[in-house]
Specification:
- It is a single chain.
- By secondary structure, the protein is an alpha+beta fold.
- The chain has helices at residues 14-24, 37-42, 78-82, 87-90, 92-97, 104-109, 112-118, 124-131, 149-152, 228-241, 252-274; strands at residues 7-10, 28-31, 50-53, 64-66, 69-73, 135-139, 144-148, 153-155, 158-159, 166-173, 180-186, 196-202, 207-212, 219-223.
- The strands form 4 sheets. A 5-stranded antiparallel sheet has the order 4-5-10-6-7. It has a 4-stranded antiparallel sheet with strand order 11-12-13-14, sandwiched between helices. Strands 1-3-2 form a 3-stranded parallel sheet, with helices on one face.
- The mean pLDDT is 94.
């Protein structure tokens, strides 16, 4: 299929992009890498009147640090963040998840913020943002604001972003001393969207487990340090809370089983990193 007709604007700077977005609102879409949006355009699942390309805007392609945050602007490609020197030490969870994000070709074009904007419930970047309690930074002509990842993702490919806002950056907390991190995923092929993905953040006092691919958005639960049947019971309860459903890729039963087994192994790996 071919996309419906649209006007294309290659923004020279962020001000121009925000002006166009402010004028057109829900009739406009932002494009950066296009790895999620272009298939939707071709299948006419998205029919914007105006497409605003922001990849030529200077300053959006450099990852930065702000205190204890890794700040990833809208133009940073997934491959670029994956190659960031020292990322495994800065944030091990993010470094472990990025190789699962699509394939080599898509990572070379796709952006980190684009994955957050697309908000696929199986995607790795939303999962990492929720697991790490990261933030999404939004900007319009009216204002700038930051939203916690838990509040930003509100449903199946639905977010808290207003029609005149774009994602200026996302921010991931750096690794904290005395904390273990782990990521595991089951997919049909390495790099495909997850059937179930798990991200664990563990301290001496608490276990935080986030799960993607089951509910309509990534979900995180926190437990006290548990072992044996107590952990099994907690994971079983979490698996049922996610309200898994059958689809083309997997049954609800399989997804619940994966939450239990993959969740336990991911927590175990994070606890070993902590030790």
């Amino acid at each position: 299929m071919k996309p419906a007709a649209f006007d294309y604007i290659r923004a020279g700077d962020l001000s121009e992009a925000l002006d166009v977005l402010g004028r057109h609102g829900s009739d406009a879409r932002i494009i950066a890498g296009g790895q999620s949006l272009l298939p939707m355009l071709n299948m006419r699942l998205a029919k914007p009147a105006v497409l605003i390309d922001i990849m030529g805007i200077a300053g959006l392609e450099r990852v930065g640090r702000e205190g204890d945050l890794i700040v990833v602007p809208a133009g940073v490609r997934q491959a670029a963040l994956m190659k960031r020197p020292g990322l495994a030490g800065e944030q091990p969870l993010l470094a472990a998840a990025l190789p699962w994000l699509g394939h080599y070709q898509t990572r070379a074009r796709g952006t980190i913020c684009g994955s957050a904007a697309h908000a696929d419930p199986s995607a790795e970047i939303p999962l990492c943002l929720v697991a790490l309690d990261g933030e999404v930074r939004l900007r319009s002509r009216r204002r700038r604001r930051s939203v916690s990842a838990a509040d930003f993702f509100s449903g199946m490919m639905v977010t808290d972003k207003a029609d005149d806002e774009l994602i200026e950056a996302v921010a991931f907390p750096v690794a904290m001393t005395g904390t273990g991190y782990a990521f595991r995923e089951v997919a049909r092929r390495h790099g495909d969207f997850a059937i179930v993905g798990c991200a664990a953040v563990v301290t001496r006092d608490a276990v935080h487990l986030a799960v993607a691919g089951v509910a309509d958005r990534p979900q995180r639960r926190s437990f006290p340090p548990l072992a044996g049947s107590a952990l099994t019971d907690a994971l079983n309860g979490f698996a049922w809370e996610l309200d898994a459903r059958d689809d083309f890729h997997a049954t609800a039963r399989l997804r619940r089983d994966l939450v239990r087994s993959l969740g336990q192994s991911t927590i175990g790996e994070a606890q070993r990193c902590l030790a």
